[in-house]
Fold this sequence. Notes:
306 residues; mainly beta; Ferric Hydroxamate Uptake Protein, Chain A, domain 1; four-stranded mixed beta sheet; 11% helix
Amino acid sequence: MSFRQGSSLIIRCIFLSALLAPPSFAQTSSIHGIVSDSLTGERIPYANVMLVGLNRGTAANAEGFFLIPNLNPGTYELSVSSVGYRKKVETLVVPADKSLEVNVRLVSQAIETEEVVISGTRKGRLAEIATSIHVMSPKEIKLTPVTAQEDVFYSLQMLPGFVSTSDVSSRFFVRGGAGDQNLVLLDGMKIYNPFHALGVFSIFDPDIVKSVEVYTGAFPSEFGGRLSSVVNIYSKEPRLDRYSAKAHVNSLSSKFTLQGPLSGGVSWMVNGRKSLFGLFRYCPENCLCKSLRHGNMNARIRRDLQ
C-alpha cells in the first residue's frame, strides 16, 4: 500500500468516526416560576431563590417572578425564602434542554426576636451616596398626616426633594423641575392626568396601592421621557381565598372596595370613590363646588395560571 492510499484511508476513518459520534455540546436548562402567598395567592416580591449547595441563585422581581438560567440537567434542591414567611425547600429534577416551571407558595410566619439595641457614633462625612429611589408601603402612606382623607401624592411630599404647590394641593415639583416633568405610572401604564378637583386630590385610592417606587434621579433605562422624577405605582392583587368588602366615608368623599375569587383561578377587585361636594345642598352654576366634584373607579381581574 502506498503512502497516499494509507493517508486517504486514515482521513476516511476519522470522518466516519466524527459522523457516528454522539453530539458533545452541553445541553443547558433553566428553572422559572412565581412565588406567592399560600393563603391569599398574592405574589411576593423580591423573594430569595437559591440552589442548595451551589453558588447559584436569584431574587424574584416586583411581580414575584424568578428565573435561574444555564443549568445542567440533574437533581437540585431549590430553597425559597422571604421576610415574614417560612422557608420552603423542594427537590427538583431538571430535564435536558428544557425550562422547568416551579410555582412556590410560602406560608406566612410571625417573626419573634429578643430586644434589639442599636447604638453607634455619628459619621464625620458621608461615605456612600445611594441611588435616589424611595419605596413606600401602604402602611407608610396611611401614616402620613392629612387634613381630611388619605392621598398617595400627599405622602410623596414628605420625601426629600418634593415641594408642593400649596398646602391644599397634591401637585408637586421635584428638585426644581416643572410639574409636567414627572412621569406617573400605574402597573406600567402611563397616566397623563393623575389629579382630581383642580389638583387637590390624586386619582389613586390608597386602598388599592400595593407599593410606590419613587425615583428622583438616576432613572433606569426602562423609564424615559421625563426629567424630574418617576412615580411607579403597583396596585394590589385581588384575594384568592375569600370575598372581602370595605367601605369608608369622610367629610369629603365616600369609597368602597370589593374583591373575591371566581372559578378557575380567577379573582376580581372593584374600587370606587365619589366626592361629597354639592351632594347635600344645591350648587349654583358658577360655584366652586362643581369644580371640586370628582369620582373614579378601578377594576382588576387576575387569573392564576398555576
